[in-house]
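Case study 2.
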Amino acid sequence: MTTECGYVLQLGDDALVAAQRTAEWCARAPLLELDVALANIALDQLGQARHLLAYAGRLQGAGRDEDDLAYLREESEFRNVQLVELPNGDFARTTAKTLFFGAYQNLLYTGLSAVADPVLAGIAGKAAKETRYHLDHAVIWTLRLGDGTAESHRRMQTAVDEIWPYTHELFEPAPAAPLDPATLKPRWNRLVEGVLARATLSRPEDGWAPTGGRRGVHTEALGHLLAEFQHLRRAHPGARW
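Prediction:
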């Protein structure tokens, strides 16, 4: 597998797993407005995953399409960061995940929209616009919850504290990649820390930093997600509807 193929596959897996987690809020969100907003975010992420996995399949040259890569790989073959596979928890936890991951994706896709590869640049250009909305949505709700009632503030701070350790994996160095994610960390820090400050939330101290997703090492949550997501395709191989 070429470096570029592996990099595109990572991005596709990030988006696919994020889409599945976000979609779990459909018909379960605390407000109708949020039900629609989170469903739209999930659809955007799924669209990004389809384009990226389809391109990764072409780069591999093994005849696998986006569906094969999504449904017919084992847990250890997925290369997404652990952050996106974490269970949703309450709405504050999902808001923290969306803030951290949305800020990362928006910076990443904006940078990738200028790379030499025209296919990757095209995918990234569209995704940069979509993730700007994801980020805006997360910022609004981080401010509402963080600077709201005592209970909403407590829940939002707890969510930030719980998710923060998983953000470090987003920026692990990859010098051979079309865009090294490590170069995004300073801008991400400024953006996220500014939002947390406005929301009267404390930035957690850096310490424990779980890792391994890019090497196929995942939390137990991914196995449960894939079991549900892949079941129908695996139970009825080759079925047509």
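Residues 3-235 form a domain with the Ferritin fold (CATH 1.20.1260.10).
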